[in-house]
Amino acid sequence: MPTVLRVGSYRFFFYAGDRDEPPHVHIEREDKVAKFWFDPIRLQESGGFSRQEIGRIHKLVIEHKDSLREAWDEYFGG
Fold first, then answer.
1. Which of 5, 34, 38, 40 allows an S-S link to 46, with CB 3.0 to 4.6 Å?
2. What is the pTM assigned to this prediction?
């Protein structure tokens, strides 16, 4: 599970087994998790984050989309 970005208390990462899914990123903080697809950027699933916090995370994914997608391509050979 490579960590590809940290912003404040959020950790952005991939699972090695995600290769066969569309490009996306997982985000965690403490025991909360979310998953965002990249194209288009949208929430796939969330566990524990409030709606307001999901909004903040969504903005972070948009802000860092290029570097997150580059990390995906480097890790999975895209």
1. 34
2. 0.93
3-class SS letters over 39-73: CCEEEEEEECCCHHHHHHHHHHHHHCHHHHHHHHH
User: Total domain count for the chain?
Assistant: 1
Specify which residues 12 forms β-bridges with: 5, 27
CA separation for the pair 33, 26 (Å, rounded): 7
29, amino acid identity: R
Q: What is the domain range of residue 34?
A: 3-76
In tens, the pLDDT along 21-66 reads: 999 999 999 999 999 999 999 999 999 999 999 999 999 999 999 9
Residue 78 above 70 pLDDT? no
